[in-house]
Amino acid sequence: MNFTGVFPILATPFNGDGSIDLDSLDRLVGFMGDIGVEGITILGVLGESNRMLDKEREALIARTVAAARGRTKIIVGASHPGTQATIGLCRMARDLGADAVMIAPSAEPVPNEGRVFDYFQKVAAAATLPIVAQDHPASTQVHMSVPLLLRLVAEIPAIACIKEEGLPTPVRVVALKQGMQERRVPVLTGLGALYGYFDIMAGADGFNTGFAFPEVLMAIVRAARAGNSEECYRLYAKYLPLIVFEQQPGVAVRKELLRMRGLLRNPHVRHPGAPLAETAARQLREIVERVLPGVDITQAIQP
Asked: Are 40 and 12 in contact (CB under 8 A)?
């Protein structure tokens, strides 16, 4: 599996009563396949993975694999505070047809990078799927140093990609790319593409994030591969108001935007997550109209 390009993080669609909306999931996965992303990730932070029952995870993975129809690679978030539980979630993903898993460490009372390394090593030995190692201190409260990430790459063959979301991301992307010597793996950036232009210019190999317009991220990657930094910046600057607005805490803004795009039937966020306030919903509609005046966003856009 090639971890370069754009790998959107998918929201988990729910009905108004909180049950999983599998029809909207089909639509969301199909849209991503139609526009040609390199892969998708489910059960990440945007996927509200910490609010899912095990049987729901199983149903969601199985339906995603079926909806992808082999067109799109599937990465499944499988992090858990317990090592054995993480291994179990990885094996579930493998048995249901996923192509890779995304793993992040959990905070411990006494931070210890040796234990973090052991966690990845034990999971890798038992999971038998490529691993995207997610460095996202905002959600994990774990700060992985660049030397630790480089050690993961050097010593654990199953680590196939680094998802770098520790600040400052451009500096860390450069350090990772320069620090990989005998073995190199792609570095993807996330954080809703908030620092996307700077990360790509620093050498990131693509995006693994939930921005609701992945077509824009695909265009930025194409421009970067062509060496056209001016086009990268133009695209980033044009969509930055949407990118910034999406980065507010929670997932309600993105889910509402996906509803506006016709991909989710309902923007329901599972409790205790908060729904979108009417003020924010009004501002979101205004931003969309300013950035994409007169554009039918239910269709794939031309950035």
From this structure: no
User: d(Cα 215, Cα 6) in Å, to the nearest integer?
Assistant: 9
pTM: 0.97
Task: Report all structural domains of the chain as residue ranges with CATH numbers, in order of start.
Answer: 5-232 (3.20.20.70)
Find the Cα–Cα–Cα–Cα dihedral 63, 67, 68, 69, rounded to 10°: 110
Distance (Å, whole) CA 82 – CA 98: 21
Helix, strand, or coil (residue 90): helix
Can you give the pLDDT at residue 1? Answer: 87
- CA 175-179-180 angle, 5° bins: 130
- In the numeric block, which tokens belong to residue 177? 């790319």
For the chain of 303 residues, list the mean pLDDT of each consecutive stretch of 10.
96 96 98 98 95 96 97 97 96 98 95 96 95 97 97 98 98 98 96 98 98 98 98 98 96 98 98 96 98 98 95
The alpha carbon torsion through 283, 289, 295, 296 (nearest 10 deg) reads: 30
